[in-house]
Structures are given as C-alpha cells and as structure tokens.
Amino acid sequence: MLKRSIILGAAALMGSSIVFARNGALMSPAHRAAIVLDTHIDTPALLHVAGWSIMDRHSLSVDGTQVDLPRMQDGGLDGGFFVVFTEQGPRTPAGFAMARDAALIRALEIRDMVARHNKDFELATRADDAETIVKSGKRVVFMSMENGYPIGRDLSLMRTFRALGVTMMGPVHVGNNDLADSSNPDNGPEWYGLSPLGRQWVAEANRLGILIDASHASPEALDDILALSTAPVILSHSSLKSLADNPRNIDDARLRALAAKGGVIQINAVSSHLGVPNSRGRAPARALLGQPVANIAELQAQRAAVLKIERENPAPRANLDLLVAQIRYAVALVGIDHVGLSGDFDGGGGIDGFDEANDYPKVTQRLLAVGFTAEDLRKFWGGNVLRVLREAQARAEPSAVAGPQ
Ligand SMILES: [Zn+2]
Fold first, then answer.
1. What sign has the CA pseudo-torsion 186, 191, 194, 200?
2. CATH number at residue 60
3. What confidence score (pLDDT) does residue 398 get?
4. Which InterPro entries does the entry link to (predicted)?
5. 104 CA distance to ligand 1 centroid (A)?
6. Of 105, 183, 238, 324, whose CB neighbour count within 10 A is largest?
7. How far apart are CA 211 and CA 263, in angstroms?
8. How many domains does the chain have?
9. How close is the Cα of 216 to the center of ligand 1, in Å?
C-alpha cells in the first residue's frame, strides 16, 4: 500500500497520472500497478566489491553496473531473482567443494545484503511473499541458482540451498556438467539431455518445490525436463530461435511445449540473443569482464578499459525494436500468460534503450504503444512468474520445504 500511496501523492502533486522517472521515461499507471520483477539479476556478483553498495546510485558509464536501489526505484522495479551464479569448473571432488563453498558464500552475501538493508529489501521464499513485500514498500529478493555445479553429485545440497532461500534452480551453465548438457557445450553432447543424476535432480526439485529454470540447458535437456517435471518450468532468461539463431535461444515447438505445461519464458535482453552478434574485436572486453575485481576502483578501471575497447571496435547493439519484436512473437505464439522479461543485468545483458534498472518503464511504454493492456502488463512483469513459482511450490511435499526463512 505504501508504494501506491506514494505514487498517488506524487501524481496529485504533478496534477497528472503520469510520473516521470528520473531518467525521463514515463512511468505509466500500468507500470506502477504491476508487480515488476526481473527473473535474472546478476548483481550479487558485485556484493563483495569493497566500496560498492547496492544502496548507492551508480552509473553504467563510470563503473559498468546496472542495478542498485536508487535505479530500481526510478524504474519501478519491485525486485526479482538475485542470482547465485557459479562458473563451470573441474568436475572433481576438489572442484565440487570449491563450487559448493563459493555458492554458499554468495547465498550468504545476498542474505547479508537483505539483513543490512532490511528497511528497503526483504527476502521472499514463497510466491505470495512478493505482494506483501511490495505493499510494505520494500524490494523483493528471491534467490535463484544459475548452474547446478555447486550441487556436484550430492543432491542433498539442494535442500541446503532451499533452506537458505533459493526458490529457483537451473541445472547447467556454459559447459556440460554432471546433471545436464549445456546449450553451449565445450565438446558437444555428453548425456544427450539430462544425465541419470539430472533426472533425479528434477524429481528432487519437484519434491522441494523448487522452480526449475531451463535457461542454458541444451534443447534435449529441456525436453527431458518437460517430460519429467511434475511442475511448470521457467526459462528465466532466454530468447527465440525463430528471430535470432543462437544456441541459447528456444525454437517454437519447444516454446509451445513449455507453455502447454504451464511454464513461462522470460525474453533475455542480450544483444547476441536478439540477433546482433558481438563484434569479434570486442572479445578482449568480454575477457576483461570475466576478471574478478576486489574494490570499486578496480571496477571503474575495468569499465574504462572496456569502454576504450568498445570505442576502438564500434559495433551495433540490439535495441528496443528487436526486444519488442521478440516479446510480440512469443505472445502471438503461446499467449500473454507465458511471456515475461529479463535484463540479465550485471551478467552481460543490456541493449540500447534497456540498459539499467531505471529503464523498465521504457519497455512498458513500448508495449502499451503496440496494444498491451494493463492486465497484460500485470502478467508480463510479474504475474506469470509468480503463478509458475506458486504452482511449483504448491506441488512440493509439505514436509520437504520446512527450513529457516
Ligand atoms: Zn545466464
């Protein structure tokens, strides 16, 4: 309610129902009325950077970051799924232990962020928490896991991560692992879908009420997941192969199968997924972005180096036209109940016009202009993902989901 009363107050002051966000984008009543969630926020990768705080306003041009509380407020972004990401590494006992510990630390960093700033953020562990948290005027922090590598070969760790607050998990990232083949394998298919352990992983996710995220899984692994899962499935940040031929993108037949099972695709705002491949000359920039940084000075130096490479290797980027085309194609194919959006911010996402957390109203404006209704936008921005999460959680074994909140 707090959110709405502040908005109404601002609108009354301006004598208009339109509120201008700080970046000049119109924040329409439809945008303000929706619960706006992004299903793939990689910002937790920054939480350990000394001198960088999610509470401060940052600039894309200065430090390259895309999400913080001031920009979330400007963009009417109510929250989303904050990612515990682990890069695929050696599939050895030592590798599994390192990945497990790194993921546990990342999950604790997210919990620590929420605890430190509990007037502005709140951890959500149930789908229905989102509405309550938004009404209290706070930002919604769901936790998700990108890559099942930290699970290694020990499925009992899924219960541990669920107890820490993880509500969505994907089995695999770049490179195959012990659970599944990747859409970007190092050396071709290994399991031709899910591994035998990956099939058990699906059953355990269902039992724990964890929403299964098939982004980054190979097409055959998605087929296996759709065949085995008793709950609907999400693609938390994936786009459409019909419009952009990229191994990360999904074909029409599989999108129909995902929707027929009640699932949702969150179109991903990454240039190469929208049909604008990265310039080859920018490979050094991508390598730089993979380098860890310890403090904000190093982050700013890295950003300056990346911008220099980009100036020297100018290349087109995807834009809102391409993004909206993907959204409209998906809605035409499977209906508004099965489509949403992810920025993949702070994880490689961002296009012209939708490049940081204050840009969400621009997408709403474009969708209103092509005929989306307020009810369509309510589903698109958060209603759909919350429905799918609610269904996954409703199918859990009641005794399996107990744990600290
Ligand atoms: Zn990803």
1. negative
2. 3.20.20.140
3. 81
4. Metal_Hydrolase, Pept_M19
5. 19
6. 238
7. 10
8. 1
9. 7
Low-confidence ranges of the chain (pLDDT < 50): 1-16, 404-405
The domain in which residue 234 lies consists of 2-276+316-397
Question: How far, in Å, is the centroid of ligand 1 from the Cα of 136?
Answer: 30
Centre of ligand 1 from the C-alpha of residue 7, in Å: 33
Per-residue pLDDT tens for 122-169?
999 999 999 999 999 999 999 999 999 999 999 999 999 999 999 999
In a domain? residue 72:
yes
Q: How far is the CA of 164 from the centre of ligand 1 (A)?
A: 21
What distance in angstroms lies between residue 267's CA and the mean position of ligand 1's atoms?
12
- What's the confidence (pLDDT) of residue 198? 98
- Domain membership flag for residue 402: no
196-203 CB contacts, 8 Å cutoff, 24+ apart: 197/153, 197/155, 198/148, 198/171, 198/224, 199/224, 199/228, 200/155, 201/148, 201/151, 201/155, 201/158, 201/171, 202/228, 202/229, 203/228
Domain assignment present for residue 405? The answer is no
Instruction: Measure 294 CA to ligand 1 centroid, in angstroms.
Output: 22
Give residue 218 CA to ligand 1 midpoint distance, Å: 13
What's the 12 CA to ligand 1 centre distance in angstroms?
Answer: 41
Contact 300, 293 (CB under 8 A): no
pLDDT attached to residue 283: 84
Residues 6+ apart with CB under 8 A from 324: 363, 366, 367, 370
- Confirm whether 192 is domain-assigned: yes
The pLDDT assigned to 284 comes to 86
Q: Kindly give the distance from the C-alpha atom of residue 93 to the centroid of ligand 1, in angstroms, as a whole number.
A: 24
Neighbours of 405 (CB within 10 A): 10
pLDDT of residue 362: 97
Residue 147 CA to ligand 1 center (angstroms) comes to: 9
* pLDDT of amino acid 215: 98
